[in-house]
TrEMBL record:
The organism of origin for this protein: Amedibacterium intestinale
InterPro entries: GatZ_KbaZ_carbometab, PTS_IIC_man
Keywords: Cell membrane, Membrane, Phosphotransferase system, Sugar transport, Transmembrane, Transmembrane helix, Transport
Membrane-spanning intervals of the chain: 74-107, 140-163, 175-197, 209-240
Intracellular or extracellular location(s): Cell membrane
Alphabetical list of PROSITE patterns matching this protein: PTS_EIIC_TYPE_4
Topological category with respect to the lipid bilayer: Multi-pass membrane protein
Lineage of producing organism: Bacteria, Bacillati, Bacillota, Erysipelotrichia, Erysipelotrichales
Protein name per its UniProtKB record: PTS N-acetylgalactosamine transporter subunit IIA
GO cellular component: plasma membrane
GO biological process: phosphoenolpyruvate-dependent sugar phosphotransferase system
A Pfam family of this chain: EII-Sor
Length: 259
């Protein structure tokens, strides 16, 4: 499958808006599963796009940009992976093999962009001190444009140059390596969930974790069923906590009245 020029341009624009969304627009494009929906609409292969988006979404669950630190841009990785999967014929494994390294590479581009942003802001501050506000506004617009280019340029290379290169690389890969990629792509969601559980009070709610595992492993309950069961557990826990708090308040009020 070959993408048209319009599809290529739409993918580049979509990738460019991912970092913009993370730092300002907040439309949800920073979440891989949402980005994958738009990428799937563009390439016309929604099942593959959602599979890739879901996989990278699980990888990103335990990752957070704290204190201005740079983290892998999985949203851009999704766009690249969907484009590669659609054009190379290698499927999800080929897409993830290229998309994940691109997401990791975006860490370096993000660092470069943040360093450049400090220069832009310093120059804008100088213009503001000299009361050149029109020039200051134009200078500040360079920031979003720069963030857009940090993702649009790698995406352009992947779209316009990477097709033949990706096919050549995939053909040169030995069977044991592609087989390893297939296994790794199936393990990545587990790694993402494990990272997420590491930051959650898992020990306190271990019974809920065991219940979810039991429902899936022994009763073949779908994810929707597990989600409903989890909601029920939350409601029971919430009601139990409210009852305990009300009892504590009543005892406290009774003690004050006795005095």
């Amino acid at each position: 499958m070959e993408l048209t020029i319009v599809q290529d341009l739409l993918l580049i624009i979509l990738a460019g808006f991912v970092p913009l969304d993370k730092y300002g627009l907040t439309l949800g494009l920073r979440w891989p599963v949402i980005t994958s929906v738009f990428a799937g609409l563009i390439v016309g292969d929604m099942p593959t796009a959602l599979y890739i988006g879901g996989t990278l979404q699980l990888m990103s669950l335990g990752v957070a940009s704290i204190g201005g630190s740079s983290v892998p841009e999985y949203g851009v990785g999704v766009v690249v992976a969907v484009a590669v999967a659609a054009t190379s014929g290698g499927g999800v494994e080929a897409g993830l093999a290229i998309g994940i390294p691109v997401a990791m590479l975006m860490v370096q581009f993000d660092v470069i962009a943040k360093i450049s942003q400090s220069i832009i802001v310093r120059h804008a501050q100088t213009l503001a001190n000299h009361k050149k506000f029109s020039a200051m506004y134009r200078t500040l617009l360079c920031g979003p444009v720069l963030m857009f280019l940090t993702a649009a340029i790698p995406m352009s290379i992947a779209v316009f140059v990477g097709g033949d290169m990706v096919n050549a690389v995939l053909k040169a890969m030995p069977a044991w390596f592609t087989g390893g990629l297939t296994i790794a792509s199936k393990m990545l969601p587990v790694v993402g969930v494990a990272l997420l559980l590491n930051f959650m009070p898992t020990g306190k709610f271990i019974a809920a974790v065991i219940l979810g595992f039991f429902l899936v492993a022994y009763m073949n309950v779908s994810m929707l069923g597990v989600a409903i069961a989890g909601t029920m557990v939350c409601l029971v826990y919430y009601a139990f906590n409210n009852t305990q708090m009300n009892n504590s308040n009543e005892q406290g009020n009774g003690g004050l009245e006795d005095e």
